[in-house]
């Protein structure tokens, strides 16, 4: 536990047999449940995860469904097993476990519902992140500011996140985009339930042999689609949440000088 909160860590993985054992072993001891979601890997990812920790929970997809779908599978496990907060960490070791308390503290202190890492706020960004990634993440982050409704957040592609399970329970997880572009879409869904989102600095980690599996020609179209979809989702949700014209109860609640009579809970519920 961390500050009286039960913590689950979800590790989505695809063909990560070389790195998954280190990723699992690096999870801090205060974490209550580690869930590795093997997204139909063609190697020994699942076996390597189990060898690293006999208590790790391994969920395996029968077919490859995408990183977003893998994270959602981990979220569903955490929701039914009593976690208070769910963290997402990568299976390739690109997230520093020492940053985990920084993600959890805003939630533990009641300041946030969803906390995401911001590598751009860390002093090592330009020493670690390849220039092409800096450019791509900057452009996507600026676009996501508009589509998600969270103008104060940055580094939208950073997958190092923590979320209250109470907030997750409000989302329709079936509607979250399942593949590349998931973090952009997730922010728009969070905006639809008025979740409080906070950025915290996290250390960027890119080893000397790092090579991205994402190609520009395969990313531009789907992410553009996701951003448009997310923006439309946010606009639709905002319209639904607006009070209907002429609703006197809502008008009274926000009108100065109008006193609201306190009604006992039993009377209000008809008991």
Characteristics of this structure?
single chain, 271 residues, alpha/beta, Spore Coat Polysaccharide Biosynthesis Protein SpsA, Chain A, 11 helices, 41% helix, 13% strand, globular, disordered C terminus
Number of domains: 1
- What about the largest sheet? 7 strands, mixed
Q: Treating each run of at least 4 consecutive H or I residues as one helix, how many helices?
A: 11
The average pLDDT value, as a whole number, equals 84
Q: Over all CA atoms, what is the radius of gyration?
A: 20 Å
Which strand order spans the largest sheet, edge to edge or round the barrel? 3-2-1-4-6-5-7
Q: Tell me which CATH architecture applies here.
A: Alpha-Beta Complex
End-to-end separation in angstroms reads 39 Å
The CATH topology name reads Spore Coat Polysaccharide Biosynthesis Protein SpsA, Chain A
CATH first level: Alpha Beta
Shape: globular
Which structural class matches the secondary elements? alpha/beta
Count of extended strands: 7
Low-confidence stretches: 247-271
Share of β-strand residues: 5-15%
Helical content band: 40-55%
For CATH, the homologous superfamily is named as Spore Coat Polysaccharide Biosynthesis Protein SpsA, Chain A
Protein topology:
Layout: E1 7-13, H1 20-25, E2 33-38, H2 45-52, E3 57-60, H3 67-80, E4 85-88, H4 100-108, E5 114-118, H5 125-128, H6 131-148, E6 161-164, H7 165-168, H8 182-192, E7 197-201, H9 216-241, H10 248-253, H11 265-268
Parallel strand pairs: 1-2, 1-4, 2-3, 5-7
Antiparallel strand pairs: 4-6, 5-6
Helix pairs in contact: 6-8, 6-9, 8-9
């Amino acid at each position: 536990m961390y500050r009286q909160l039960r913590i689950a860590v979800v590790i989505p993985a695809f063909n990560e047999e070389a790195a998954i054992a280190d990723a699992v072993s690096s999870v801090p001891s205060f974490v209550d449940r580690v869930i590795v979601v093997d997204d139909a890997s063609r190697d020994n990812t699942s076996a390597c995860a189990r060898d690293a920790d006999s208590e790790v929970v391994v969920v395996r997809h029968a077919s490859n469904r995408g990183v977003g779908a893998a994270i959602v599978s981990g979220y569903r496990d955490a929701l039914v097993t009593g976690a208070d907060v769910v963290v997402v960490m990568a299976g390739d070791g690109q997230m520093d476990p020492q940053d985990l308390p920084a993600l959890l503290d805003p939630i533990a202190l009641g300041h946030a519902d969803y906390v995401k890492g911001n590598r751009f706020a860390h002093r090592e960004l330009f020493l670690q992140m390849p220039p092409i990634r800096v450019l791509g993440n900057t452009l996507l982050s600026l676009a996501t500011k508009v589509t998600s409704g969270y103008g104060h957040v940055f580094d939208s592609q950073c997958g190092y996140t923590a979320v209250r399970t109470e907030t997750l329970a409000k989302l329709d997880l079936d509607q979250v985009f399942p593949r590349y572009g998931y973090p952009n879409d997730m922010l728009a869904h969070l905006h639809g339930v008025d979740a409080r989102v906070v950025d915290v600095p996290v250390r960027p980690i890119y080893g000397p042999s790092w090579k991205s599996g994402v190609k520009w020609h395969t990313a531009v179209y789907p992410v553009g689609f996701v951003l448009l979809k997310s923006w439309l989702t946010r606009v639709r949700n905002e319209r639904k949440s607006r009070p209907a014209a002429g609703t006197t109860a809502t008008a009274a609640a926000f009108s100065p000088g109008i006193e609201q009579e306190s009604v006992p809970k039993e009377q209000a519920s008809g008991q």
